[in-house]
Amino acid sequence: MALRNLKEFCSPANQQQVGAVLDKYGDGALVLAGGTFIRGLEARGLLSEVEALVDIRKLGLDGWSATADGIRIGAATTFASLEQMPDLGSAAWLGALKDALAHPPLQIKNAATVGGCLAAACPFFDLPTAFMALDGTVNTQGAAAPREIGLEQLLVGLFENSLEPRELITELVLPKPSGRSASAFIKLGGTANDLAIINVAVRLTLDANGQCRDARVALGGGVGDSARRSPAAESLLQGQAITDELLQAAAEAVGQDIEPTTDHRASAAYRLAMAKVFTKRALNRALARLN
Amino acid sequence: MKQLVTLEVNGETQEFAVEPDTTLLGVLRDHLGLMGTKRGCDSGGCGCCTVHVDGKAVYSCMTYALSMQDHKVTTIEGIGTDTERDPLQSAFVKEGAVQCGYCSCGMIMTAKQLLANEAKPDEEAIRHGIAGNMCRCTGYHKIVAAIQSVANS
């Protein structure tokens, strides 16, 4: 087993017990919920210093609630539970989330959680790209004070998040955009359940004249150390009338905001080319949802 | 250092002393001798380790045994007997969906939840539903046919 320093598996029942375990083990504690990426981290040799696994699924952090302002999703909410949200099938603004949830296999959806997926800071995951295009923020506890962190500030590097020691994500908040909004997500993967070569999530808000009032373009997969937005694409779209030429220009512009990588799945050149193709397709998919 | 966990597997409850990183797969095969659940990739992708936890299909190779306190585990051994097979087990045999058999138990456990979620999935939904289970022998055609035959019955 690659967890060669592992001493204890803990299942704390309340925040106090979580604090005690995290105090006891410090950097040696690895918080998990579904634990579906543990093997991935082990295989990359990143877990040899782990002394305690801390399962936080007894803290009541699962479940979601929808209000007029948006959706709050508990960190320990599984993907399968998230799929049950009634609005998911009908709300155009949630299209990107619905699209992203179609990809993980059943066994992953039943265990993987929103909080774990974000905390893993793996750029090849799908949901974080969708959440980023939806202006998602996370609320945390356990640091000096509870805080709210935007996803671009949370996902700071390859498997690196900006959480402090002892800090846990407790929920993800997706604010409902005003006006006529739709989002979409597309993944380019190798096989049915492979990690993304690249993925793209977009959200468009149109005003009464059909002009783009607000735009979000987010990319993940092999686009750099972390999922990120494309300010170049977004600024081209903002305030403009939607035309095919505009969408094409925005799609080309994502090249300025990504650092595609070469690995066994794909070359950087392929990723760069596909990022543009799939940005355009995602924009068209979002637009189709507005009609 | 070992820790204790009480596990309910196929309706029977038993206490185990396991290492902190012992997986559910390890308990099923190595402690309980339930060999229907297979150890393939041991890293959560091939699907031959699929069991149900509280009725939901999961990769038992990625599930820590110590997280299973108060949960109900069902394996392939728990869904049918030699005289009363689960319809999926009969269908896999009848349709010729079993070659080496290594993926079969995991496929059936996944299909079982698939059909519980959606009574009559079409072919695309079935293929999508078993995307977390790999088969190297059959090319999936007869596996899909077997699941379809149960869905349509």
How would you describe the overall organization of this protein?
The complex is a heterodimer of chains A (291) and B (153). Chain A has 291 residues and is of the alpha+beta class. Chain A is built from 11 helices and 14 strands. Chain A has a 5-stranded antiparallel beta sheet. Chain A has a 4-stranded antiparallel beta sheet with strand order 11-12-13-14, sandwiched between helices. A 3-stranded parallel beta sheet of chain A has the order 1-3-2, with helices on one face. In chain A, a hairpin with a 2-residue loop joins strand 4 and strand 5. In chain A, helix 4 runs antiparallel to helix 7. The longest helix of chain A is centred in the last third of the chain and has 23 residues. Chain B is an alpha+beta fold and 153 residues long. Chain B folds into 2 domains: 77 residues, Roll (Ubiquitin-like (UB roll)); 65 residues, DNA polymerase, domain 1 (Orthogonal Bundle). Chain B is 33% helix and 16% strand. Chain B has a 5-stranded mixed beta sheet with strand order 2-1-5-3-4, with helices on both faces. In chain B, 46% of the residues are buried. At the A-B interface, helix 2, strand 3 and helix 5 of A face strand 4 and helix 3 of B.
